[in-house]
Structure formats: structure tokens, C-alpha cells
Design goal:
The protein has seven helices and four strands. By secondary structure, the chain is mainly α.
């Protein structure tokens, strides 16, 4: 990470009112990343992904906070507990994506990209396993499941489906890299 910082930032002296008459500031000189979509389309997609992320949180909470026998089964509790880690990364990626500016640094872009490509898929797979565990618990272990068990099953299934949708929506976006105008200054500064 330090090498990446040193590669993409340059120390620049800026005048100030201190004793030394200057201060050191770091200027980004690496390439700019941006999504190759019109601003209106990108805003709309950000809102859709954010709404889907809020819905994933709602349905995950709805399913996992129910006091039913299926939630205490190891076949449901283990994958849904593990999926909480992926859900956390998914939510962080969604928030970063939503608040990202038009031009992003290399570090920010790769952070968002890795989170929104991997975390929703891992979350959906683990929630799919939890759905199968719910079905197993309801059919073979629990005599006559109550209505709340069906709510848990549905909430987990919707949660898995929405995470897949978030991943697919994000993967449709293309990105482009642009040269940074400050990188020319960096070349001139180092010569």
C-alpha cells in the first residue's frame, strides 16, 4: 500500500505563514478513474443500488431477528452469521459507490470495485445456503412450521436475490481511466 501511495502522490511545497514559509502537501498524480456512463444514468444507478442495499439490510434483519427454531439450527445460523461479514463489506461498498465523485483515485476505485464485485456474490451464496438450511429445518426437522418460519425463509431468499441483483447492476458499469493533469507537473518537477 505504501508503494502505491508513493507511486500516485507527490510531495509539493506550498507557501504558508509558518516559520519555514512553506508546508508539504501531497498531490495526487496517478490516473483518474471514472465510470463510463452519463451523469444522469449513473445517479439513477447509484440510487437503485443504494435502495437495494437498504432493502437487503431490512430483509436480513427481518429474517435473522425472528425467534424461530430454524434460526437456531446450525444449517441456518452458520451461513447467515458468516454472510453478515459479506453484508458489511457490501454495505461499505454501496456507501462508497453512492458518495463517489465523478473522478476517483486508484485506491478508491479499486476499493469500491472489489467490494461490489465480490461481497454481494459471497453474501448471496451464503444466504442461499441459509435458505436451503431453512427448507431442511422446516421439512424434516420441524413438525408443522409456523408462519414466522416462512417469513424467515422468504426474507433470506429475497436478501440473496437482491445481492445478486446489486452485483449484476454494478458489473454492467464500465470504467475509463484518464491521465491526471498533475502527472505532467510531476514529470516536470522530477527533471
Amino acid at each position: 500500500m505504501r508503494e502505491r501511495f508513493e507511486e500516485n502522490y507527490t510531495a509539493v511545497q506550498k507557501p504558508c505563514d509558518s516559520r519555514r514559509k512553506f508546508k508539504i502537501a501531497y498531490q495526487y498524480t496517478g490516473p483518474w478513474y471514472r465510470w463510463n456512463a452519463p451523469a444522469r444514468t449513473l445517479r439513477r444507478m447509484k440510487k437503485k443500488v443504494a435502495a437495494a442495499g437498504a432493502a437487503v439490510l431490512f430483509f436480513f434483519s427481518l429474517g435473522s431477528l425472528q425467534f424461530v427454531e430454524s434460526n437456531y439450527s446450525v444449517f441456518v445460523a452458520a451461513p447467515s452469521s458468516l454472510s453478515l461479514i459479506a453484508l458489511l463489506y457490501e454495505c461499505i461498498g454501496i456507501v462508497q459507490f453512492y458518495f463517489a465523485k465523478e473522478q476517483m483515485t486508484t485506491f478508491l476505485y479499486h476499493g469500491i470495485n472489489s467490494k461490489l464485485r465480490l461481497a454481494p456474490l459471497i453474501h448471496s451464496v451464503l444466504m442461499g445456503v441459509a435458505v436451503l438450511g431453512c427448507l431442511y429445518q422446516m421439512i424434516w426437522q420441524q413438525p408443522g412450521p409456523d408462519a414466522v418460519s416462512y417469513v424467515v425463509l422468504g426474507a433470506y431468499a429475497i436478501c440473496a436475490g437482491l445481492s445478486v441483483w446489486i452485483s449484476r447492476m454494478y458489473r454492467t458499469l464500465e470504467f475509463v481511466t484518464e491521465k491526471n493533469a498533475a502527472s505532467k507537473q510531476k514529470q516536470n518537477h522530477t527533471q
